[in-house]
Amino acid sequence: MIEQINNLLPQTQCGQCGFKGCRPYAEAIVAGAADINQCPPGGDEGIVELAQLLGVPPKPLNPTFGVHKPKQVAFIIEADCIGCVKCITACPVDAILGAAKMLHTVITDECTGCELCIAPCPVDCIVMQPIATPLSSTQKYAKAQHAKRRYENRLSRLQKLAEAKLERARLQKAAFAQSKVK
Ligand code: SF4
Ligand code: SF4
Ligand code: SF4
Questions:
Q1: In this structure, what CATH number is given to the domain that contains residue 105?
Q2: Which of 3, 7, 11, 14 to mutate to test the pocket of ligand 1 (most atoms within 8 A of CB)?
């Protein structure tokens, strides 16, 4: 059921529902810890789909969690970018290209419009722009599934990096202890 609910969510991973991503929100719905009307990116359309899946009546989006906006993507004003990399760290779907002290750019096709890169930018050079053509339901679903894969790949990569860091620290500690014995 968690996976079925997660598959209906927009995979924006924005956290507006009060949870750290779409899957934790799906888990909270199943656990009875969240209502079906807490996802602004999904809007009323998403609430109706969740209600149908769960066999409960739909309800309006709870404004406490935000308002539904037309789909937008981030755009970096490259002339102002100082290459601090903070936006790359914040982006849940690896939709930003750049390197330290180099200008950064958004891969528009990969951007989910989550806005998580806006606040960390120290020079306010990221703006949101509406997409030119609204997406059909089929296109929205395909994009959400693509974003889900990118998000999961990112989580897996970060997990491996954290494990490798821990292993390096463990080996250094062991080598230090060994050198003390000698
Ligand atoms: S897209 Fe919806 S479910 Fe996913 S994190 Fe954002 S508000 Fe939560
Ligand atoms: S580029 Fe910004 S708005 Fe787009 S997905 Fe990444 S963090 Fe979200
Ligand atoms: S956070 Fe802003 S200044 Fe820093 S790399 Fe990203 S766009 Fe450039």
A1: 3.30.70.20
A2: 14
